[in-house]
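Notes from hallway chat w/ T.B., transcribed later so I don't forget. T.B. wanted the structure written out for a chain they're using in a teaching module, and asked if we could keep both sequence and structure tokens in one place. Agreed to drop them here.
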Amino acid sequence: MIWPRKARRELAIDIPVWERLQADWPCLRGLSELESGLMRELIAGFLTSKTVSGAQGLEPDDDMRLAIAAQACLPILHLGLAHYDDFVEIVVHPGAFLVRRQLTDEDGLVHEFEDILAGEAMEGGPVVLSWDDIRPQIAVLDAPQQPPSNIVIHEFVHKLDMADGEASGCPPMPATLKKRWKTTLFEALDGFASQLDAIEAAIPADIDPESDAADAFYEHLPLDPYAATDEAEFFAVAAEAFFVRPDDFQKSFPALYDCFSIYFRQDPVTRMG
């Protein structure tokens, strides 16, 4: 299956391809016939308007492009592909990748360090992904529940957030929703941060909070601890849960679920129930 850029109008994602995507990715299941048709159009448009390229020797094949495109299009199902107009390229690394950072402290000293990332969305630039952090989710065909995270949704939600500038946790939306959104999201973040503080305070001093030995202390949190980083990361991590674990997310954050449902124009709990 090839997507030549010159053949945009003839491009189509046929029903067998779409059904295979739904089988591989539980978050795509439960869509109505109308929504499935819209998703197929969005995926086709995404793959003809974006370039999916590899890094570090990786050569993305058609299945990889389809997997990324389908998950990237789920948040914009009822928003439209124009929400991704500020970038063209998606770069896929075989695994986690290093990014060199510079940080200037309060005294004006510049510190350089390296981040190990599974994904990154750059303002006005490409989305960068680790295939190793996407691929394991394909093996959930017979799993009783959704995978706990989704790096593709996470990074493309950051792109939605960046549509009006730096990511802030509040993407462009009608003023009638924005005030409610900010209040609800910030309250949810504060509550989650308090939960995380209580858990970290309970971890014995001889256990590194960043080690595997501390995982048991975090397992009852409704979101990954990374969500407490700031408003932008809270939005992205929460959006992952909204799409891949909607029942759990609604139970933990009912008011925020309602805001997300209005913004994305989707109700994953009803769809996947």
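Follow-up for T.B.: The CA atoms of residues 16 and 22 lie 10 Å apart. Might be a good example for the class.
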